[in-house]
Amino acid sequence: MCLIYFVSFLFFSVLFFLLSLNFMVTDYSLLLEYEVLNINSCGIMMTILLDWMSLLFMSFVLFISSMVIYYSEEYMEGDIFINRFIMLVSMFVLSMMLLIISPNLISILLGWDGLGLVSYCLVIYYQNVKSYNAGMITALTNRIGDVALLMSIAWMLNYGSFNYIFYVDYMKGSSEMNLISSLILLAAMTKSAQIPFSSWLPAAMAAPTPVSSLVHSSTLVTAGVYLLIRFNFALTESLMFILLFIGTMTMFMAGMSANFEFDLKKIIALSTLSQLGLMMGILALGEYNLAFFHLLTHALFKALLFMCAGCMIHNLGNCQDIRYMGGLVNLMPLTCCYFMISNLSLCGLPFLAGFYSKDLILEVLSMEYINMFIYLMYYISTGLTVCYTFRLIYYVLIGDFNYLSLNMISDRGYIMLQGMSGLIFFVIFGGSMLMWIMFPTPYFICLSPLMKMMALVVIFMGGWMGLELSKFTLSYSLKSMQTLKISFFLSNMWYMPYISTFGVNFYPIYMGRVIYNTVDQGWSEYYGSQNIFNQMKYTSILLQFLYHNNLKIFMLLLSMWVAYMYLYLFI
To answer: What global pTM score does this model have?
Structure first.
């Protein structure tokens, strides 16, 4: 079954790539419409948009999916439900396809919701408490975006059609389009995990590693960025300013958190979050072509990075803590070679895939008319990316081997290696290839030598800092309580999981218990129904006592009265 899906996805990937080249050269777009329903002159159309951008993105998604499915054959080989897993992954890819080719908000919602639902099924695949919690936070966070998309569909009724592609440029600035753009921005922020919706992204690492490879490279998290690329003409200056600030802060926060994390998959997930912030930031500066370029190059090296991490986790008996790893380059050299190349591509090392998009983004940013805060944040975040990458390389490849003495770590997973080998060529040459295809007229970069060298300086500084940081284990060197608190704050994504998870379930339940003890079983019981019942009961008992002993009481009162009269008369 894996092989059938692998071959079909690969075939369609090549087909879409060739079609994309043809459409790009001829500057051709195809819009296919089929009317499903017509209500009050508002037609619900099934619309398909085929242009070079959608075809190229579909080609990349299908290529990465084919490699991931081939890789899964060995990674999930002990699983009795492997066919169900492959079917879920295929549904996931098809939902993404529907989202990519839709210029219509209704069909976008189908793909969008399909991604959300299937991602929930994949995150809870291992069926334990951690997976269920992660799946629920993923699904519920994405529901916020789904609601925003539904509201924007309702507002599109003002135009008499759901085909946003006809209105994004023409109706720019109108109050309806401003509101629709704001809702689309909210939807994209939830799906692409921007601040304050970031905490679901590392939590979604509970899914099997092939799923993480697919989700965090080219499908789920990129859906928000892709939607904004399509909507970029409708974004006003104020929305772009908000997006620029949020994207930059997300990038910085993810870079800081990754430097304090010890879970291999979570470090790579935070790296994805950092790159998403980078894409959002450059998109907010109006360079949507560059955002799309980085989206594609990032998909290649991030998919390979996750596949290498999965190979290591597989060999280490499902151990994900980087402190147990070390010296793996001696035991699994080919996997570590791929891991190193994709990591360096992530850093933006010259002439690998990531360099072409990342360096161009930083240079275009340097030419933009922006303030010092955004400029510094971008370069510091780039430095942090290199920093956590070299820290990861030190812990996994160079440092001391801390795993069990009796182990079977080797490069014997041939099917997994073949799946990864399919991607390595594109990780090395994909950036230059894409640049030649997408930008036939090169960008003109005009910078001073100092600013031109800034990216390279930041890369070397970040690498040096990463190696220095990894020389000592943080958990043993943090002496003071204050340092520990800062470290905890940074490693916990600025307490964002506490806001989104504990903030919405643990603390309200805890508060409910306090209120229940103090109010329901406390003061309200004392002053309320229970106390009224007790008072009435005691009064009733007293009256019953008086009624049962009324003759005795009467005789006692009479004798007391007689005694009182005797004393009064004779004394």
So the answer is: 0.85
